[in-house]
Amino acid sequence: MLFKAVSQNNRALAIWWDLCPGLFLAAFLSAVVKTLNACAAIWLSARFLTELAGPQNPRTLIALALAQLLSSAVLTLLCALGDRLKDYEADCAACLYNKIYMEKMLSLDYPRAHSQSTCELYAQIMQNDTWSALGIREAFRLFELSVAGAAKILAGAVLTFPLFLSPIPQPKGILAILDHPACPFLLAAVMAAIALLSSACAQKAQDYWTRHAARTRFGNRLADFYITAGRDRKRALDMRIYDQQKVLRHLYVKDHNPFGPSSQIARQAKGPMGLWAALSQSASAVLTALVSLYVCLKAWAGAFGPGSVTLYIGSTAYLFQGISQLSGALGRMTANISFLETSFRFLDLPNTMYQGGLTTEKRRDGQYEIEFRDVSFRYPGAREYALSHVTMTFPIGSRLAVVGMNGSGKTTFIKLLCRLCDPTEGQILLNGIDIRKYRYDDYMDLFSVVFQDFKLFSFPLGENVSGSLPLDPHQADQCLKKAGFLTWDTALPQGLSTPLFSDLDDRGVELSGGEAQKIAIARALYKDAPFVILDEPTAALDPLAEAEVYEKFGQITEAKTAVCISHRLSSCRFCHKIIVFDGGSIVQVGTHEQLVHDKEQSGNMSR
Ligand code: ADP
Which CATH class is domain 397-420+437-606? Predict the structure, then answer.
């Protein structure tokens, strides 16, 4: 078990090392300086006491007092600096830390990333990590504890060693035992046994938390919900109108709170959990008493004076602290195994989809041809096919509309086109080659998509338009104008620097759904990809703005190949070709006139 704990822990430490090697150096330096500070204080005060109880030479006493003052000032300052350095490195590492999970999530196959099991696993890790700092975070804390513990053991042993080199001058009777060569070993063994006992008791108390992990996770989620509901802008109106905080308070304080006063956790904290924690502490008190007895007996028998008594009692206590810290860290490492395994299960999720190695040649003429060849798709776990036997080619440079009722397969079609999912059967080809063979990031460069549920950031307008690309103000301005965001230069006095939304900046502007959608269209245009896909681009617009977008559709998308998804045939007049989906299959293809004509014909026939 210990071997497993150490190897899992080492893997977590390797992650920390990759993120921020400076953190290890800072933790090491901080432990060393703190140990030196403590040891200097123990040693100098013992020397002072020896002098005071013995020769009482004023010069030596003054020198010792000054040394104590100086060393304490310098080493305390160094300790504070060490802590500051450690905090700084820890802050840097914390910023980078979150990217481990974020990057893994974004690199996962899209269907796997959004599967129920992955979401649950991720939520579990976030809970462990955020609320209890268990898992990868705990691994570094245990490293710090172990380093500090080891430094204390080393320093404590060095200071304690002379205790066994100071024999009793004329040992009489039973006191001769105190000089027996086995004494140091016996003392070390007793210390180790009590430290193990103490950490086993502490572990027993901790085990209750591990057993209640699921319940505490729920409690923490509840607390999080309770705390954030009040400032959630989307809930603000409902909360006020329906006085919902009362319901929440009732839910949080009384009924479901696993940390509530009458909860099982609270009962156990007052009972067995508290008892084990108290036993753990009393074990160390027993050891302190035993060691003090041994040291005082030796002093009483004449082995050393009162100064050394202070020294040895201080140093053995320090040594024991180190042993407890190290054995406690080892115990916690074992308890942390299951939390680390959860994190590693997520980080080790295989990524099989995006393995292609071909690059898409960057064509200036934008002549990319995409073909769906007898493509069928079924969502993982679903019984029905969401798309079945779809065969079609995108005419280069043309505007294509995808029309159909809700649930007819339009979004699934776009997800397959953008390789968010791979076909269950059939192939999608780019310039004659299966798209799975291309590098995924290269392939994604070909598409600009405005999804129906797009999201903007609370950043300045310009950065929202440029996305991850460098901001060219002129280009951003053009794209906004093309997307119909014409009011920006009058309504937003800071132009492209205007912060959007007020989450991060009080001066941020709130946008209507239509304005936000126009910015999202501008962002898609700014990317300047050969394919522009607009998923229900006018869903949030009023009828006038909707008509405007469709009228300018050609101007917006220029010579690019454009795909526009809509559930209304009338919106697609400006497209060259319309494909109609029904039940996951293409049921009609043609121009707007042809389809309207067919519709009228079928209307006449049915009459
Ligand atoms: P549309 O965009 O035309 O409204 P979709 O492509 O979203 O239609 O959905 C097509 C079919 O696939 C629907 O029957 C829908 O219920 C199903 N579907 C969509 N997403 C999922 C999913 N993640 N898991 C299972 N089925 C899904």
Answer: alpha beta
